[in-house]
Amino acid sequence: MNSIKKANFIKKLSEMAERDILSYTENGDLAPHSTFKIGGKADFIVRVQTREALVGVLKQAREDGIKYTVIGNGSNILFSDERYEGAIILTTGMTALSCEDNIIEAECGYSLTALASRAQKLSLTGLEFAYGIPGSVGGAVFMNAGAYDGEIKNVVTKTYYYDVKNDAFGEFVGEENKFGYRESVYQEKDGLIILGARFELEKGDSSAILEKMQGFMRARSEKQPLEYPSAGSTFKRAPGYFTAKLIDEAGLKGYSVGGAQVSEKHAGFVINRGGATAADVKKLVSDIQDAVYKNSGVEIKCEIKIIE
Ligand SMILES: Cc1cc2nc3c(=O)[nH]c(=O)nc-3n(C[C@H](O)[C@H](O)[C@H](O)COP(=O)(O)OP(=O)(O)OC[C@H]3O[C@@H](n4cnc5c(N)ncnc54)[C@H](O)[C@@H]3O)c2cc1C
Fold this sequence. Notes:
Layout: H1 3-18, E1 22-29, E2 41-48, H2 51-64, E3 68-71, E4 77-79, E5 84-90, E6 97-100, E7 103-107, H3 112-121, E8 124-125, H4 137-143, E9 146-147, E10 150-151, E11 156-163, E12 168-173, H5 185-188, E13 192-200, E14 202-203, H6 206-223, E15 230-233, H7 243-249, E16 256-257, E17 260-262, E18 269-272, H8 278-296, E19 305-307
Parallel strand pairs: 2-5, 3-5, 4-19
Antiparallel strand pairs: 1-2, 6-7, 7-13, 8-14, 9-10, 11-12, 11-13, 15-18, 16-17, 17-18
Helix pairs in contact: 1-2, 3-6
Bound molecules: flavin-adenine dinucleotide.
């Protein structure tokens, strides 16, 4: 990294840090910022508190040619073991929220589970499925997160973004978000950073909503290996198949590479049994894909985003 540009970037970060709109670490450890608890170091880890700080850092990164990645809660990512030569920008400090009638607007860092709880307290139905999905609004929009009977697509009617390349703000309405199975327009286009989203929900009965949410949470803890670090389901569902069943049928339950293991409780989850590296996870993922293809002829695709 060019040292003058790096110094410029640090100057901008420290100015914003003095105004308490962000904090940052140089040469920071990435593992604590992913639910997998895996990762090397990054030149910068920046935690932004406001939209102004997020946009300010992104603008400066573009001007100084500093590589960046914006993340939410780090629940669907795998950091590399190698150094990230640039800035990892964490958004979970951006939690502005407004509610009016059946509409909630949430900033990108707002917790999805907390949002589902908020909706329940307002007697608004539609977000029950999201209760228990770890992550932020930004990550959920990016991934079109979903579970049980719902997905983001059904409740988000508008998303707001900052376009880093063109230094411009914009929004996508309805279909423009191109939500598909674990897909959105944000995965197609580079440099569009999600600032927030509008959720349109329906009036419901708050105790019925609560009961449904609690049922989903119980099902999660019964079926998922929540006692180990992971990034949730490792693979996308192959159309017409249950991925966990394919993995199980290939005889891989419990199979491990280094500290990474196919969960015995739920074969769709790769877990970190302790000390797993990104290289372990990548090798395990590729072994699983090969074995499933050999056993059933089905190609399974990784859902987790690799950040390097
Ligand atoms: C135990 C467990 C259970 C899970 N269960 C489910 C489930 O039932 N259903 C499901 O869909 N997922 C599930 N997941 C995966 C994960 O929770 C979701 O994908 C979630 O939406 C990720 O949100 P996040 O904030 O953690 O995103 P991150 O992991 O931080 O980021 C994911 C991707 O989004 C990008 N991104 C994040 N924020 C922004 C932003 N503001 N602007 C632009 N890009 C952004 C990142 O660069 C990255 O590519 C599970 C994960 C775990 C660990």
